[in-house]
Structures are given as C-alpha cells and as structure tokens.
Specification:
This protein starts with a helix and ends with a helix. Helix 4 packs across helix 7 and helix 5 crosses helix 7. It contains 11 helices and 14 strands. The radius of gyration is 21 Å and the shape is globular. The protein is an alpha+beta fold. Strands 1-2-10-7-12-5-4-3 form an 8-stranded mixed β-sheet. It has a 4-stranded antiparallel β-sheet with strand order 6-11-8-9, with no helix packed on it. Strands 13-14 form a two-stranded antiparallel sheet.
C-alpha cells in the first residue's frame, strides 16, 4: 500500500477512536465531515481500514433510529407491500392489473412487480456490476469521486453529507441516463455494459408503467409520457457494507423520492422499509421482483390521488454487503409548468398544490436534503 492510501486510513482510525467519547468537547463535526469527504474513501474504505466503531458524524439521535429490539408483546403484523404479477398485461386482465397498481399507489405508494420481462440474468449482472465497482481499491474509485451534480457520473458517500444532521452508512455510484446520457468514457468500465443494458430494460419497463399509472388515474395512457416523464433518468447504485454499530446509524435516512417514479432492484439481503400508517413495513426481497414507488412529483401531478411515502434502509449488520440500484424517472422538460393535471381538478376536488417548474422543484430538493415530506408540503396551496 502506498503512502498516499495509508494516510487517510490511519486518519480515519483516529477519527473512529475519537467517537468512543461521545461528549468530548473538541469534536468539530464540519472538520471531520470534510476530512472524510476529501479522503474519498467512502464507508467501504472505513470498513476496509478495520474500524470497530463508527465516526461520530454517522451517529443518529436515538429518536430517529429504527427500533431494532425484538418485541416481547404479540403485535398484529402490518399489511405487506403488494406484489403484482404483470404476466397477463397484454390480455383481458390488463384492467385488473391497472386496478391493482392504482390501489397500491393510493394506499402504499409502493409495490413489487413480477413477470416484468426483464431476464433474471440481466438483473443479476446489474447487481454484480455495481458491486464490482464499489469493491475496487480506493485509488481506482477516487478519480470518479465528486459532488458536482452536473456531471454525468459521480461516486460519493451521502449526497447530503454536508447538510444532513447525521450521515448514513452507504456509498453510491450515480449515472445520468437521460435525456443526455453520460458519455461512455465517463462510466467506469467495470460496470459500463451492465449500466447500459439496465437503462434499456428500465426505459422499456418505465414506458409500460407510466401507461398503467395514467390509466389508473382515468387518464389517456400516454398522458405522463406527454409530460416528458420518461425523459430524465438517473441511476443510483447503492452499496451498504457491513456496519460495526448498526444500532447507531442507518443505511439510508427516512425520505420520499422527489421525482415521478422509481424502479428499484434490490438484492436478497433486505433492509428496505416503507412507512405505512404508523408502521414501518419491511419490503422483503421477492425473487425476480422489482420494487416500484411513487415520487413526490407524481403525488402532486395526481392532485394527491397517488401517494409518495417515506422509506428508509437499515444499516447492514451482516458481513455480506447489500447492493441495490434505483432508476429515478423525472421530466426532461425542466422549465415547463408542473402541478396537478387539469383533468384531475374539479370544483369538488380543487388543486392541492401550486404550479412550478421542475428546475425550481429540484433546486428546493437539493437545498433541503433528505427530509421526509417537506418537499411536497412546500408546494401545497
């Protein structure tokens, strides 16, 4: 190991050691966060350094942490996230599938789909490609490390690292897929073919889902496509390594997605949870399934008919890493007006939200960070 890579590792061992005294007076969070960010190690690098306690800026206040203790009192099991079979999509059962998806979007904001025509081998290769990128040595990943949102490709730990109250235990490879995709030479070669292939599959699936979502609102099947909702796409390849203190942090803090629709491919590890009423419901991995969720913008466009909901990921207590990919569908027309669709507004159902441009919407999102439903609430009338 070179001197350049040894220095950040030893520095972060010191940082981790300092967290054992929670009440120390000389703790400088801003300096610690900057030091971690500039090292370009990510949490994977911290784990590889052999640390046994997490740096203090990853520690969340107790009231925001998931309750991981086993409950002694018998409790009613929360209703599971719906799983919807798309195998008869192009038959007379299409209307039944539309109803199932519409009901899931109105009650859960989340559902899983099976028989979506994406081969399991493609899904496995996508997960393997993302995993392979994150498990490269730090010196190979470091040149891609960036917080510049305008770049086509960036590898980073915590998009809201500087604005959040506490960091989360994960790293992310982010790739712009549309409307102007990242140049092939910008995408790490180790996962280039997998990402290009996954974009093609999710774009086709996204078109079908947008039609089903439109029909579930009583709209023309092409309505969301007309609003360019298929055009803006970003992929996030998340890596959740083993966390030595999973009871003190999270893998991904509670939030709702800002865009129209998200397609999530999760591995077999689990850890994703969705808020449903007062309960947090596990989104248990279903072999061959994809997780679909409503974004804030779709809630607004549907005038509150469809619901975007808070979700989170637990910190990974297993030695095996958890890997997932999320493709976020957003409008490519950033300066056009967005708000409740006129067809969904009536005297008895007035608009719940004001109009705005997508640029204004996303600027607000990045300013506030991952913070529950604050984005939607900001645009309420």
């Amino acid at each position: 190991m070179t001197t350049e890579t040894q220095a950040p590792y030893s520095t972060h061992k010191t940082m981790a050691a300092n967290t054992t005294v929670i009440g120390q007076q000389d703790y400088d969070r801003a300096q610690q966060v900057k030091q971690f960010d500039q090292s370009k190690l990510g949490v994977k690098g911290l784990v590889d350094s052999g640390l046994t306690c997490i740096p203090r800026f990853f520690i969340h206040p107790p009231e925001t942490l998931p309750d991981l203790r086993p409950h002694t009192k018998p409790q009613t099991q929360p209703e599971p996230i719906p799983t919807i079979d798309l195998s008869d999509l192009h038959t007379h059962r299409r209307s039944s599938i539309v109803q199932q998806i519409s009901r899931a979007c109105r009650t859960f904001g989340f559902f899983q789909i099976t028989n979506h025509r994406i081969p399991s081998a493609v899904m496995d290769r996508t997960i393997a490609g993302i995993k392979a990128f994150h498990e490269q040595p730090t010196e190979i990943k470091a040149p891609v490390y960036s917080r510049e949102m305008g770049t086509g490709v960036s590898y980073l730990s915590n998009v809201d690292l500087y604005s959040s109250k506490a960091a989360s235990w994960r790293d992310t490879l982010q790739v712009r897929l549309g409307p102007i995709p990242a140049a092939p030479e910008e995408v790490p070669e180790i996962c280039l073919d997998e990402i290009v292939g996954w974009d093609g599959e999710t774009r086709r699936l996204g078109e079908a889902l947008m039609e089903l979502l439109s029909e579930g609102l009583g709209l023309n099947a092409g309505r969301l496509r007309e609003m360019t909702c298929l055009g803006g796409r970003v992929m996030a390849g998340h890596y959740y390594p083993y966390c030595p203190q999973p009871d003190l942090t999270v893998g991904l803090t509670s939030h709702s997605d800002p865009g129209v629709l998200t397609v999530v491919l999760q591995d077999h590890m689990g850890g994703l949870q969705v808020k449903h009423g007062e309960d947090w419901v596990d989104v248990k991995p279903v072999p061959g399934a994809l997780v679909i969720n409503v974004g804030d913008l779709l809630q607004i466009m549907s005038n509150g008919e469809y619901k975007s909901v808070d979700h989170r990921v637990l910190a990974n207590s297993n030695r095996e890493p958890r890997v997932s990919t999320a493709v976020f569908f957003n409008p490519s027309n950033r300066e056009g007006p967005y708000g409740p669709l006129p067809e969904l507004v009536a005297p008895e159902k007035p608009p719940l939200y004001r109009e705005f441009t997508f640029s204004e919407f996303m600027q607000r999102f990045f300013n506030k960070g991952l913070d529950g439903k604050a984005l939607v609430n900001h645009f309420e009338l």
